Amino acid sequence: MAYDEGLAERIRERLGDDPGITEKRMFGGIAFLCRGNMAVGVTGDDLMVRVGPDATDAALARPGTRLFDMTGRPMRGWVVVAGDAVAEDAELAGWIERGRAFAASLPPK
């Protein structure tokens, strides 16, 4: 599955040259990892965000979100944000920071 390279580039620009961030192809798209833990990614035209189990319900209350589910088993702690819901840079930045903050709270891999 192809992924939205434009969205991936916007994420790269937002993350800057943070040495703790790496990229890896995952889930048919691309993922951005913070100290080895996935923070955000792009699958198709959508943004994947790792928010953590405790923040899942609040994240799902936001427009354009759904639980991440690739195998028929939804993954609590992960949400997908529709590409059109992150068309504005401020919205995208907020989601990126949520994902990066959660990933940074985890032990490095």
From TrEMBL:
Residues 19-101 form the TfoX N-terminal domain. SUPFAM superfamilies: YgaC/TfoX-N like. This is TfoX/Sxy family protein. It comes from Streptomyces camelliae. InterPro entries: TfoX_N.
